[in-house]
Structure formats: structure tokens, C-alpha cells
Amino acid sequence: MSKLPNIPTSIFSVMSQLANENGAINLSQGFPNFPEDERLLQISENIIRENIHQYSPMAGLPSLLEKIAKQTEKQYFRKVNSTTELLITAGATQGIFTVINTFISSGDEVIILDPSYDSYEPSVLVAGGKPVRVSLNEDYTPNFNKIEVAITTKTKMIVVNNPHNPTGKIWTNRDFENLETILEKHPEIIILSDEVYEYITFSQPHISFHTRPKLVERTIIASSFGKSLHVTGWKVGYLIAAEKLMYEMKKVHQFLVFSVNSFSQHVISQYLDLVDFTEISNMYERKRNLFKSLIKESRFEILPCDGTYFQVVNYKGISNQNDVDFARELIQKHGVAAIPISVFYNDNTDRNMLRFCFAKTDETLIAAAEKLCQI
Q: Which end of the chain is more exposed for a tag (fewer CB within 10 A), N or C?
């Protein structure tokens, strides 16, 4: 008997297949279609024949762990012990699965804020836990009254995604203060903070759980080199947590993947000496601004995007179709693929919203916008 009998095929796979069948421009899947940094490729070429192709240490390549610790201190002023508080994972998704399956047991409840990324709930279900889906406000800010009401004696974890996929929202200092006030009453609750878009933020700075003294010791933070360095296919992420939490997660990790691709770790370790994360953020901000300017005369309503590489739009001025049907029609009739926001909700809340990915070449964005402006 399957542990996930009711989990359908991913909407990302469905929309991408439909885009391929119809020759549509694919702004649905969240990965770049432009070349990697030439310096990253040069490092790859330089070391491909070196003796680096056997297992790396279970927790990760020591030089990479040290550089992550250094970057974390530079970015967030948090000192991390590279040997006891860090773990390299096969992408953030594996990291999230590891976290949940380390700390969630049968009957434990996990609060997930909707709209939410589609890997959280299945991970909870496989662990035997109960997902408790709590909707954000209509403007996609956290509803702390709902969050507090959802907490029970069985609540073991809350999952926070910031910057937020699919909406591009970023938590404010006030949001963190509200959460701190609630969780002060519940010291047993662990926080899983999905911060994979931490280096892709725009008008307001990303506030990380790394910087929250009241919560950081019971928070596990998931990060992604795939997102930060636009090498999603390399599937290299990492977790940062207090030693007492990390010690337990390493037990699960070693039997899930044992160690992560050694070649990618060596390349990234060297590349971190060169890369400027501010430049990456600026590049995506330029792409966001370009896409917004290209579709501003369209009939789509453009919502704010504070971070990530996703732009949410409202199409209520165009159609009263549900968002899944409209997304299909957008591919079949107009040649552009997007993701309907309702699929990120447990109850399929439909506010006529679509998510476009702007991590694409300028030529792709221009071609897509031209089609969108003709609707």
C-alpha cells in the first residue's frame, strides 16, 4: 500500500509537458534557461580529471562546509560550526525531507502555510505525520491568528518559506516578532525555514531566521546552491541547525543518500571564492523589472514581487475561468505556460492568479510578453 495514494502528478510536470506538446514558451518551471557563469564552467573543466570522484564525507566536503560557514557569518553575522551545524544535501528538497522525517513521527502535526511548495505535505505524510494547512492572508502575508489557533498539543513543527514561492513575498520584522510571541508559549515546536531564494531579493532585504536570537536554536534552515547559483540540475543544497538538531538529522541523511555528488561540491567550493551574491540579486531584479515593464500594458494585474524569480499576476480582467483551465488555455491558445496558484493550496483556493518564472533569457521574456499583451 502506497504512503502517498492521493498525491497526483506534479503540476510542474503537467504544464511543462503541455507546453512541449504545444510548442509554448515555458515560464512555468522554476529554473533558468540561460548559461551558467563562465567562471563556474571553467572551474568544472579545470578539475574534472582530478581525483575528486569518490565519496565525499557524509556531512559534506570540508572546504565547502567552511566556506558556507564563512558566507553565513558575512551575510547574517551568525557564526556556524562547520563540522557540527552544517550538512550538504542533494538539493533543498532532500534536505527538507530529511528534516521532516527526522523529527516527525506518527500523529505529529506540522503547520504548513498555504499557498505552499508541493514537497512539504508528502514529506510529512511519509513520516506518518498530519499536515495542518493554514492559509495566508489574501495579500499573502502570514495570518498569525490562524497560525495560533492551529497549534495543538500535537504540533511538532511549523514550515516557513521566506522568500516565498509562489508569491514572491518576504517576511517583515513585524512578522517575525508576531511568530516569536506565539512560539514563546510553545518551546517544543521546531521551525523548518525554507530560505532557498535568500539571495534573490529586491526592494526590501531578506530577514533570515539566522538573525533571530529567540528562534534560531530551534530552527533548521534549508538553502540551495541550485537556486542561488542557477545550477538547479546539480541538486546541491545545505541545512544549518544547532548541533543537537543536526546530530539527529545526520543519522537519517546517511541512510537516505549518505553523501552528495563530490564533483559539484568541489566546483562550488572553488566558485564561492569568486561569486558575488549581490550581483546575482541585481541580475534577477533587472529581469523582474524587464518582465514587469513588458507586460504592464497587458490586461494582467501585476502583483508585488519582493524576492524569488516568480511574478504572480491576476487575470480576472481577462477571464472568469478557474486558474487551472485558464493556464491550459494560455498554453494551447496563446503559447505561454504558467502555473496556476490554486494548486499550492490544500483547498484549491482560486483567486484567478498565475505564477510566471522570469529566470529566463531576455529574448524568452520578450517573446512571452508579446504573446501575453495580445490577449
A: N
251 within 8 A of 102, measured Cβ to Cβ: yes
Phi-psi region of 128 (alpha: psi -120 to 50; beta: other; left: phi over 0): left
Question: Is pLDDT above 90 for 61?
Answer: yes
pLDDT per residue as tens digits for the range 153-181: 999 999 999 999 999 999 999 999 999 99
Amino acid type, 297: E
pLDDT given for residue 228 in this prediction: 95
How many whole angstroms separate alpha carbon 148 and alpha carbon 157? 13
The 3 state secondary structure assigned to the chain is CCCCCCCCCCHHHHHHHHHHHHCCEECCCCCCCCCCCHHHHHHHHHHCCCCCCCCCCCCCCHHHHHHHHHHHHHHHCCCCCCCCCEEEECHHHHHHHHHHHHHCCCCCEEEEEECCCCCHHHHHHHCCCEEEEEECCCCCCCCHHHHHHHCCCCEEEEEEECCCCCCCCCCCHHHHHHHHHHHCCCCCCEEEEECCCCCCECCCCCCCHHHCCCCHHHEEEEEEHHHHCCCHHHCCEEEECCHHHHHHHHHHHHHHCCCCCHHHHHHHHHHCCCCCHHHHHHHHHHHHHHHHHHHCCCCCEECCCCECCEEEEECCCCCCCCHHHHHHHHHHHHCEECEEHHHHCCCCCCCCEEEEECCCCHHHHHHHHHHHCCC
Contacting residues for 127 by C-beta, under 8 A, at least 6 apart: 100, 101, 104, 105, 108
Question: What pLDDT was estimated at residue 326?
Answer: 97
Count of C-beta atoms within a 10 Å radius of residue 171:
23
**Cell, residue 213:** 536570537
Whole-number Å distance between alpha carbons of 220 and 96: 9
What global pTM score does this model have?
A: 0.96
C-alpha separations of 118 from 115, 171, 204, 297 in Å: 9, 20, 26, 32
Q: Cell 511538532 identifies what position? A: 156
Per the CB < 8 A criterion, the answer to whether 246 and 101 are in contact is no
